[in-house]
Design a protein that fits this description.
Elements: H1 3-8, E1 15-21, E2 24-34, H2 41-56, E3 65-70, E4 75-84, E5 94-99, E6 102-110, H3 116-129, E7 138-144, E8 156-162, E9 177-181
Antiparallel strand pairs: 1-6, 1-9, 2-4, 2-5, 3-4, 3-7, 6-8, 7-8
Length: 184
């Protein structure tokens, strides 16, 4: 299901979707960020990345993304990026990487980034309830954000967690995406 399809289908913020993601190339800026500034990092960095893509005449191939890898010291390694169909060649501070495809669980958050933690908490509970281990990497896809509207209540962020183990009662093998409630 594509980004607009999730919004059109009315997937509520309390639902999780188990799906197969496709590999994607990203172009962005990496940083190590404290939890206290994690929410402002994408808003500060993504316009710089968008400007560089424009100068390079490279079209973004999807909504902006922030890849998050928790560190042991309470900070996060973060890549604020845009998906691209080709890897632009440019120096520091820009970098490219590739997210491999595979089975993921994703939840759609409605509202400002300051309330994302609530959706993460519910998603973590859902993963634990279904005995699904998550790898120490996740990403946020900013389907509707400050680049499209100044009203944070209209923002839509898809949280994506790659899966390392799944339960047969969740993945049916018949469909690429199965929507299930986050709440038990």
């Amino acid at each position: 299901m594509h980004e607009q399809g999730l919004l059109d289908a009315g997937v509520a913020p309390h639902d999780a979707e188990v799906a197969t993601s496709q590999p994607v190339s990203l172009f962005g800026i990496r940083g190590t960020v404290k939890l206290t500034v994690l929410r402002s990092y994408p808003q500060d960095i993504l316009p710089v990345v968008a400007s560089a893509l424009q100068r390079l005449r490279v079209q973004a191939a999807g909504p902006p993304v922030c890849v998050l890898r928790p560190r042991g010291d309470g900070q996060f390694d973060v890549l604020a990026a845009y998906p691209t169909s080709r890897r632009p060649r440019i120096g520091q501070p820009f970098t490219t990487c590739r997210l491999s495809g595979g089975l993921v669980v994703r939840a759609l958050h409605h509202g400002p980034w300051t309330t994302l933690l609530n959706t993460y908490d519910r998603l973590s509970e859902w993963l634990a309830l279904h005995h699904i281990r998550q790898v120490p990497l996740m990403w946020e896809e900013y389907l509707v954000g400050p680049d499209r509207t100044g009203d944070p209540a209209m923002w839509r962020t898809r949280i994506v967690v790659p899966l390392t183990g799944t339960s047969a009662r969740i993945t049916t093998g018949r469909s690429a995406a199965v929507t299930v409630p986050l709440s038990p």
